[in-house]
Specification:
Number of domains: 2
Structural class: mainly alpha
Strand content: under 5%
Mean pLDDT: 90
Number of strands: 2
Distance between the termini: 60 Å
Helix content: 55-70%
Radius of gyration: 23 Å
Shape: elongated
Oligomer: single chain
Length: 144
């Protein structure tokens, strides 16, 4: 099948398929005599694997490791579990960071009157915080 059909069947855009080939995440597709890429069902299956891994937030490097383990029938599931467990930790950290962002923005929005006046505490806070201070990090309630 051509790249458009492979994209449609896998849920991965043609642009991303080309990118994955370019970085070596998937092997280069066979070429037809016309020069167009020609994908077999095995490549489409691999693209679906990649799409599902991306949907779970795995990085390209993690997906590369997972693909290697997926292809290795003598693999140990412990390594797959380690990668997934490490990824959970990364996701939990991102969730905490995003919760901090929401809390900070909630405080800033609450401090803004949202009326016709020009002064705005949101803009003032963005303008005046020192560059080395992370605006999104604030003490959690109950934190010491």
């Amino acid at each position: 099948m051509n790249i458009g059909q492979a994209a449609s069947s896998s849920g991965v855009s043609a642009k991303m398929i080309r990118y994955y080939e370019q970085i070596g995440l998937i092997p280069p597709a066979a070429r037809r005599s016309s020069g167009y890429r020609d994908y077999a069902e095995t490549e489409v299956h691999m693209l679906r694997f990649i799409r599902r891994a991306r949907d779970l937030g795995f990085s390209v490097a993690e997906i590369s490791d997972l693909l290697g383990l997926w292809r290795d029938k003598s693999r140990q599931s412990a390594e797959v579990k380690r990668i997934a467990s490490d990824h959970i930790g990364t996701l939990q950290e991102k969730i905490r960071d995003m919760q901090d962002m929401v809390a900070t923005l909630t405080d800033l929005v609450a401090s803004c009157r949202g009326d016709q006046r020009a002064d705005c505490p949101i803009l003032a806070r963005l303008e005046t915080d020192p560059p080395d201070e992370d605006l999104t990090i604030r003490p959690r309630s109950g934190a010491v």
